[in-house]
Amino acid sequence: MIIIMRNNSKFFILGAITAAVLLGLIFIFVNKNRTKVDMPSNTVNSKPDTTTSATDDIIHSKKTSPSPTKEISIKGTLKYKISDTENEADTDAKLLLICKELPKDSISIHDINLFSNGRDFDKFKSNYCFATFTDSNGNYEFKQIPKGKYVLISVSNNLFLKPTPNKDKNSSMPPNKIVHPLDSKQKALLSPLANTLNCNLDELALLLFRANQYHIEEVHLTNSTPCVINYTFTDNK
Fold it and tell me: Using CA of residue 74, residue 193, residue 120, residue 215, what is the dihedral sign?
């Protein structure tokens, strides 16, 4: 009996030791796997936070982008004078916005013809000019225009020029064409476009305005505030 009890005690002790060893190994294995899973999280947390929001990325791209971002609108209303006290909305008037700094071959006669004919403005091949119409109330808007200096050309759809004799012998324009002569300021504004198109100012004016009243002015877009430009066409200047 004593021998049997001693043998049982030995087996009990060995079993307890074995169970303890197995539990220890299981504990080590579980902790090791948990450490592996937690390591990426600890690694990320140990580094400085370099993540940026979508807004931060947009602001950063604006600061570093070499080209201007399209974020400015130009809008207004065109009218024409019908009496000393009354103006009407100039519906379907055409407007052409041209960048003052025109690279060579940046705009073609094809683009100007599209504008002159009043159709297919979306087929402009140039990234330096934009065109639009006025609505039934005479309102217009150019959306998302890059910052910069532009020439805005407005052509009335309802008020026309009277024939103006051409007495300039050096001009290539035939006499008595229905085009109002350009003044010195207008010539200065249209000269870059004429040079890019390789044509003279008289030919360009005839192509752009035909027999319609027109207005030309310089526009500087410097910030994100919408630019409002209104104009009322009158009889011959």
Answer: positive
CA distances from 22 to 30, 31, 191 (A): 12, 14, 92
Report pTM: 0.64
- Cβ distance 74 to 144 under 8 Å? no
CA dihedral over 197, 199, 134, 122, signed as positive or negative: negative
E strand or H helix that includes residue 202:
helix 201-209
Start-to-end CA distance of the chain, whole Å, equals 135
The two tokens of residue 50 are: 């370099």
Asked if residue 187 lies in contact with residue 201, where contact means CB atoms within 8 angstroms, the answer is yes
- Asked if 197 and 108 count as a contact pair (C-beta separation under 8 A), the reply is yes
- Tell me the C-alpha to C-alpha distance, in Å, between residue 235 and each of 40, 81, 167, 190, 221: 77, 8, 21, 22, 30
Identify the three-state secondary structure at position 224: coil
Phi/psi-derived region of residue 120, left when phi > 0, alpha when psi is between -120 and 50, beta in every other case: left
Distance CA 115, CA 109 (A): 10
Pairing of strands 227-228, 70-81: parallel
Question: What is the signed CA dihedral for 144, 76, 207, 163, rounded to 10 degrees?
Answer: -170
Q: What integer pLDDT is reported at residue 227 of this predicted model?
A: 92
Residue type, 3: I
Q: Which two tokens stand for residue 144?
A: 């998302």
pLDDT of residue 43: 42
Written as six digits, the tokens of 44 are: 């990320």
Per-residue confidence (pLDDT) for residue 167, from 0 to 100: 57
Task: Give the pLDDT confidence score for residue 127 in this predicted structure.
Answer: 76
